[in-house]
Design brief:
Largest sheet: 6 strands, mixed
Strand content: 35-45%
Order of helices and strands: HEEEEEEEEEEE
Number of strands: 11
Length: 118
């Protein structure tokens, strides 16, 4: 009885919450959620690397004795199946539903035709 109650208490104390990045200094990430978390580990799909700027809202979860960053709040909407990779300085790659790829405003159709936009 005591063991099962203790296990329930421990499992219910694990939290997932949103937080805001307050500092990122050479990969040492700090975020504020229900408290201040320092040295937050950030996880992403394999092959993706990024450095979160201060002010980004992210999802955090307990990772043993520390917090883990699970991802950031999306700032743009895309159509179903589309993917857009962008940085805060205006560079982007956009994989569109029609098979085209837009790179910083330059469109390459699915047939390889290059279209200068703008």
């Amino acid at each position: 009885m005591w063991i099962s109650r203790k296990m329930r208490e421990e499992s219910s104390s694990r939290t997932v919450e949103t937080g805001v990045v307050t500092m990122n200094d050479a990969g040492a990430l700090e975020a504020v959620g229900s408290g201040v978390s320092r040295n937050v580990d950030v996880f992403s799909p394999y092959g993706y690397s990024y450095s979160l700027p201060a002010g980004e809202k992210m999802l955090m979860a307990e990772n043993g004795a520390s917090q883990a960053g699970l991802g950031v709040m999306m700032n743009e909407s895309v159509k179903t199946g589309e993917i857009k990779i962008a940085n805060p300085f205006g560079a982007y790659i956009y994989l569109k539903e029609d098979g085209s790829v837009v790179i910083n405003g330059l469109t390459v159709t699915k047939n390889g035709e290059v279209i200068m936009n703008g």
